[in-house]
Description:
Helix content is 44%, strand content 25%. The protein is α+β, with helices and mostly antiparallel strands. It folds into three domains: 10-124, PAS domain (Beta-Lactamase), CATH 3.30.450; 140-213, Helix Hairpins (Orthogonal Bundle); 217-379, Heat Shock Protein 90. α6 runs antiparallel to α7 (187-211) and α8 (223-241) packs parallel to α9. It is elongated, with a radius of gyration of 33 Å. It starts with 9 loop residues before the first helix and ends in a 9-residue tail after the last strand.
Amino acid sequence: xxPRPAPLDDGEGLxxxxxxxxxxxxxxxxxxxxxASWNVGAExxxxxxxxxxxxxxxxxxxxxxxxxxxxxxxxxxxxxxxxKVRDEGWRLRKDGSRFxxxxxxxxxxxxxxxxxxxxxLARDITARRETEVQLAEAREALRxxxxxxxxxxxxxxxxxxxxxxxxxxxxxxxxFEARFGGSQEHAPYVSMLRREVSRLHHLMHELLTYGRPxxxxxxxxxxxxxxxxxxxxxxxxxxxxxxxxxxxVEPELPRVRMEPGRLAQVFQNLLAxxxxxxxxxxxxxxxxxxxxxxxxxxxxxMVMDQGPGFVPGDLPRVFEPFYxxxxxxxxxxxxxxxxxxxxxxxxxxxxNGPEGGAEVRVFLPAEGEPxxxxxxxxx
Length: 379
């Protein structure tokens, strides 16, 4: 009968237990914060082997800005004063990549109360952190969507109420102009009132468009005809601004389920914005092509201008109703674009081109076979 192995003493048993833990980093620190022990879990999380960290300061794993702010020493001081400290934050792996860590430090003292060092626990909770961020963003998007829906109903109601007295003002102005329009004395006032009434009509149209309930029926249609209509509607503005519009549509572009008039409003708004910001003699480009993303066909439409582009700090707010950096702007053009595209189960991305100028990309799900009514690649 083979001899029984000698029992493990407490210290050896604890060491083997610590070394066997692979999903949690367990380590010891000297009183001054230098690494004293390092288990296989810590190696797996950080990529550092024990011989690479032992004797080195624990600040090895902290971001530069955290080191500059004194975070490593502050955690040691708090653990010494309170007995235990817990922290969550970004840390560095050996390859320089970041991971989001949960850190717990416990102060270790001898029987006389003198500090002998610290034991530490580290967990990689990057996945949990990303899930929490995504949930927070989803909740915020839902809250914002509900708020915007309520705002849409409100502004539509206000627009309806304002429209009737505005018609009355227009009718009175027509009567006034019919009677006194030939007078040189009254002509400047009539002209000014016409401009302001026209501006109010435009505002009411934008408010009603933004507050309009989503369409319940989307039918497969040719996107090329919608783009043609949008270019035609903005042609007077292009001539006024001295800007040319170039359109390039991929051959056999798939159909898109849509409400054509509603979708034409999207590209009319985007082209009008691009023309407003483009310099005289410049070019606005409108392109459309088919994409396949994760096995799903989509149509990408892009409007590019040669203006100053988006200010990066403005991008988080450009879809907010009434937010406009353009003098005299209503601030509803892009919110209307986003609302209509969402109704069509698509998305909008904003940015600046590599050579300057704004780029707006609209993505729409493709429907069935390519459209027979599609235009050739460039017109």
